[in-house]
Amino acid sequence: MNDESQLPVAEQSKDLIEASRQLTAAQEDLRVAAVAFQTNDSIMITDANGNILQVNNSFSELTGYTSEEVIGKNPRILKSGRHGPEFYSRMWADIQEKGFWEGEIWNKRKDGQVVPLRMAITCAKNESGETTHYVADGQDIRGLRQAMADRMEIDAAKKVQESLVPSGFLCAAGIEIAGQMQSSENVSGDCFDFMHVNQQSVAALIADVSGHGLGPALVMARTQAYFSAMVETLDDPGEILTRVNRFVGISQTGRFVTALLVCLNLETRSLRYASAGHRGWLFRGKGDVEVLESTNVPLGIVMDTTMASAPEIIVAPGDIIVLPTDGIEETTSCDDTQFGHQRILDVVRAHRKRSASEIAQLVLQAARDFAQGQPQYDDMTIVIAKVLATNAP
User: Fold this and answer.
1) What residues contact residue 204 under an 8 Å CB cut-off, 6+ apart?
2) For residue 123, what pLDDT is reported?
3) pLDDT tens across 208-227, in order?
């Protein structure tokens, strides 16, 4: 056989090899397309006239329509009514001019529920540049929108909470009060406050809502506002807690609030307090420690109850009132040891000569150091009130 007779055979073999290569490539393209079609995104393919040719499982899950119910129909069945004609005009102008459109759109499910989507619509064209298909890729952004709404709500709650936190410290004749707070999240379920009750008395408040995060923060903002309003008209701690407890109970949030309210008479150097499931300590100038025990159940548990005040206590220069929330005591180290109240008192004892603000900061710093980098699972708040000499600033 001469070379000329072998040429057609060689050409045919070359054609067969090329055809095989193209077939393999086409099969791979189909495999990749099949995998891509099963994405979590909602995929819808239409012909050039807008008739639906194919949808994937995610489309059915998102819209509630099976493929049999939509194939051959127009995507108009998904219109929510939230967009006017100008919206769709701009959309199709972009598709015709750029070959694609991307944006947010509201579609209606089969059950009538309207859902927001991040949608991308792309033209598929043939070799002549003619549009043969449209491919719509939709992503459900309900979760994203909810997260954004939550973020806005958290930011709003944070601003409200920040506006309620006292700035600086209170320094009146014979008393210095300061507080520090460190939230475990962006907002806190703790609060503290100090305020003038009348010309001769000041009050200090520490409170903690069960749980932490946005819900407790909103409850606490309302509770702190109740306290502020009551202190302006009442001077008995037990009566104030009684009134606030009714407000907390009426709100029916399902959460309870522990609180300790201390009222100090600057003239008589006496202390009265009422506690709703919250304890504090009175660190005496000579080093002895007295516990300010709880006198009542937490707020919000029994609405129609009378909150009692504890018996009056006489204080003297050098005495320090320590009001922490349990987030400090329950701070845990790497070996699961809790910081506890004794370490709080040890810090106070070691720094008793410092200002109230410095002592409060040092207690929180000691708790953070004790945790050795462990996550903070609860809000940490402390109020320190120092009884000064009468001629102190």
Assistant:
1) 177, 192, 193, 194, 261, 262, 264, 321, 323, 383, 385
2) 86
3) 887 666 677 777 778 888 88
Q: How far apart are CA 227 and CA 369, in angstroms?
A: 33
Instruction: Tell me which residue has tokens 């033209």.
Output: 123
- pLDDT tens, 109-147? 999 999 988 888 988 888 788 888 888 888 888 776 666
Q: What is the dihedral of CA 312, 316, 320, 322, to 10 degrees?
A: 0
In the chain, DSSP finds a helix count (H) and a strand count (E) of 10, 16
Please write the tens of the pLDDT for every residue from 225-260: 888 888 888 889 999 999 999 888 766 566 788 999
Assess contact for 347 and 367: CB atoms under 8 A: no
Query: If pLDDT is split at 50, 70 and 90, which confidence band does 154 have?
Result: low
Structure-token pair, residue 66? 């099976």
- The pTM of the full predicted model, rounded to 2 decimals, is 0.62
- Rounded Cα distance, 193 and 166, in Å: 6
Contacts of 187 (CB under 8 A, 6+ apart): 154, 157, 158, 161, 213, 214, 217
Is the distance from CB of 70 to CB of 78 less than 8 angstroms?
Answer: no
Greater pLDDT, 371 or 219: 371
The span from the CA of 284 to the CA of 155, in Å, is 41
**Count of residues for the chain?**
393
Closest listed residue to residue 264, CA positions, set 339, 189, 197, 210? 197
- In the numeric block, which tokens belong to residue 290? 């007295």
Look at residues 205, 316, 313, 200 and name the one whose alpha carbon lies nearest to residue 266: 200
Cα–Cα distance for residue pair 362/349, rounded to 1 Å: 11
The rounded distance, in Å, linking the Cα atoms of 335 and 374 is 10
CA–CA separation, 137 vs 42, rounded Å?
6
